[in-house]
């Protein structure tokens, strides 16, 4: 049977994610939902009308959902659900400022996902990311491997872009890695970063790497400050769509994602940015990588920071 993916939230992040998923042409159906009357149906019409030009067969279906779960029947049978519902940052806000508002939204969405798409893999992108991922698992009661969050691919892509620009090399020659939280305790991993297969540390001085690390950590805020009305969506949607594709294709690709960590790196019982092998069941396994002492210490610190916040979301 053909694959079905649902994107909840038809804002900037959701609509661009739906577009990318449709253009892959690997799904039978892309469902996009929102609480705004008409918006998802309008986007679906528009996307379907691009099929003849872009050359894809995937059908896009847009559905408005109601406060009591009206409309959620449309997501039945989804293999993957991407949750983008929630407010985005405005200039000066941290992701954590969205916590209470988005917790209410994500809980309501997750409960409906559990009811109508009980075997789906859930990919959370709403912010604050690590907390919303933990909350979605609690609200769905899905096995922890079936709920994961998108952040590491995005942070990694930002880091790679900054390195490529600084060295004036093709972005394809750059490999970087970021772990930890999608926030202040993000952990860029220079020891695992390369340019043309050679260590990043040989390609630029330590101070410049540190500058780019800081720029990466502030990557989202820099976009917010320029856009003024919302947050980034092109790079975020590229990352989320790739994750959904990896699930649908049971690809086994290893990606940096927000996953439940249970013993790896000596860390347990927390959703945290780590590398993981992605397949039809969501996270097949967390892939532990070699870190130097500083990076390991930063990852442990990130784990404790998000653990404290994730404890709060269960009551939200
Ligand atoms: N169910 C479905 N959709 C909802 C719900 C809900 N309960 N509540 C809000 N939405 C929708 C809004 O109607 C809006 O269309 O979520 C959409 C959010 O869109 P934008 O405001 O454009 O925000 P976007 O840039 O898409 O970001 C979404 O991703 O990166 C994170 O921090 C960002 O949490 C934010 C999320």
From TrEMBL:
It comes from the Bacteria. The active site is at residue 182. Residues 154-308 form the Lactate/malate dehydrogenase C-terminal domain. Signal peptide: none annotated. NAD(+) binds at residues 9-14, 34, 102, 125-127. One of its GO terms (biological process) is lactate metabolic process. Its EC number is 1.1.1.27. Keywords: NAD, Oxidoreductase, Tricarboxylic acid cycle. Substrate binds at residues 89, 95, 127, 158. Belongs to the LDH/MDH superfamily. LDH family. This is L-lactate dehydrogenase.
